[in-house]
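Input sequence (351 aa), recorded before submission:
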Amino acid sequence: MFDAAFLVRRQAPGFLLSCLCYAGGLFVGLAVSAVLLVQAGVPADALVDEFLVATFLTSDGLAQTLTAALPLVLVGLASTVAMRVRFWNIGIEGQLWVGAIGATWIALGEIGPAPMRLPLMLALGAAVGAFWIALPLWLKSRWGVNEVISTLLLGSIAFLIVQHLLFGIWRDPATNFPVTAIFPEAARFAPLGWGQLHLGILLVAVVACALWYAMEYTRLGFYADAVGHNAKAAEAAGLPVGATIVGLVLLSGALSGLAGVTIVAGTEHRLNQAVGNGYLFSAIVVAYLARARPLGVVVVALALGAVVTAGNVLKVFYSISEGMIVLLQGAVLISILMAQFFSTYSLRRSG
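Predicted structure, token format:
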């Protein structure tokens, strides 16, 4: 039977079919995750409480979920804008690290007047994040160097720079631990009085809304889609292919740098060795599950923020490791990837 069958790529998968496949993959991924957690020792009747009630239906849990989601939205948007033009930014953590370094330099040096210190931190964080991705972009355009390799290697270099600073000139003199001193008040986002949530939520909301409008209702989104689908055809049609790629890739680095500033100025209030850990994989998961759409990024980031919040509880009360939390994210992503196959291809019989 299968000797006479072949796969045919659907030209335009229907909305209903795409939604059903996406929902089916999500359901399977969540089911697999639940089984893994039960096998790891989490009671089955506690799963709903930990992943729904404690993360969205309580005041403290919702505040923690929103706080965790803020940098996830920014790195998810960073991955999204690069993905739209087929530039695979695997150095998001590196750009996040250098953004945090730039913000820390201004905060510890108390550079500029106090009212302008936080805006300066945001501007410098975005600028150095864009600078950190500019080299891989140039290497790819000039010599065809694969950006997966160059961005990943630069991410490791950024972390080594952080290590050098934390074990050197920025080591906290009060404790002698490899962390910086606490930032002054002028270099922090003002707290909202609801858990750890801070005014950085306004920045993230403005960035997300601006990108949503730009990518969905302006020429930029059209150019990005055209370049992403077929850059040569877009160039032949007279579209600004080079400018679109350069602009969105630099924007990807800038958003990652902003995420670093949001973390050090919003929740950590200092630079440490854990600021950027885990955000690369999370950014890819968020962008892909959101289908590279800015509003989808916000929704998925909130869901992943709930996973982070629930994961912290599971680690404390059920001794669940950090690796298990990453495994759960991977299970959901792989399930949706597999389900997408059925909306992308159809099985046809020859004759």
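Checked by second reader. The first helix runs from residue 15 to 39.
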